[in-house]
Amino acid sequence: MKNxxxxxxxxxxxxxxxxxxxxxxxxxxxxxxxxxxEELTEKEEKKxxxxxxxxxxxxxxxxxxxxx
Length: 68
Description:
Number of strands: 4
Strand content: 5-15%
Shape: elongated
Helix content: 25-40%
Distance between the termini: 34 Å
Radius of gyration: 12 Å
Structural class: alpha+beta
Strand order of the largest sheet: 1-2
Number of helices: 2
């Protein structure tokens, strides 16, 4: 079996399957579908927002980019 084709999320740059929402930021085709910040603590929410913003400028979020 082959791996499913992946594309970059338009919002945060994370790799996602085609025609699926991004589990990192909760967006699908430029629209927010779920609120990923809803159940996070304030500290986790701040970190997640920083990751999403960094992903927009530095390319896709992955373990390599997060460790920088």
